Amino acid sequence: SASEGQSNDNSYNVDVSSDGRFIAFDSWSTNLVSNDINNHRDVFLLDQQTGLIELVSSTSNGELAMGGGSHAPKLSHDGSKIVYISDASNLDPIRDNNLMYDVFLKDRASGETRLLNLNDTGTGTFSSTNFSLNLDISRDGLTIVYAGYRGQNTVTEIGKRLTGMTLDNTT
After folding, report:
1. Which of 54, 106, 108, 125 is 20–30 Å from 45 (CA)?
2. What single DSSP character describes residue 82?
3. How many CB atoms lie within 10 A of CB 162?
4. Greatest alpha-carbon span in the chain
């Protein structure tokens, strides 16, 4: 942690890269990185080779997610992309206007945080009561699968939105 000691709160929802180098998790801890002052659960990535922990749930400009928590990270096989859910209000303040959990993708190479559950016009998020923790990312990081409550199950391919694809409509 940033304080060179143990974390000061619980961690959850662990995912590991294929080679075991990267571990993504969410945590209430406030001492894993400096200036973690949002009082919400955040998503982190531990590089086991270097021992460094980085904040994943941040804006494309590196600002801490504010106004809500971030949960349920899933890694691409090499740890370069991380998908997670968040109800933070500043990760995409222009298009994220539903005040609910949304699905985000962090690209570690570019630093970009990308809102995925956009409506058909790309101007806002589609209506949902919430997103479940059931999300995943393909090995190559190009396909993300997530399921909303009320049967709004969706597959998103980076660069191409596939609408109306049902994975499991039992909710």
Report:
1. 125
2. E
3. 10
4. 48
- Nearest by Cα to 2 from 37, 104, 105: 37
Coil, strand or helix: which one is 149?
helix
Residue 75 CA to residue 71 CA, distance in Å, equals 13
Are 105 and 113 spatial neighbours (Cβ–Cβ below 8 Å)? yes
Residue 87 · residue 26 · CB < 8 Å: no
If 0-12 CB within 10 Å is exposed, 13-18 middle and 19+ buried, where does residue 159 land?
exposed
Structure tokens at 130: 């919430």
pTM of the model: 0.82
| pLDDT tens per residue, range 61-92 | 999 999 999 999 999 999 999 999 998 989 98
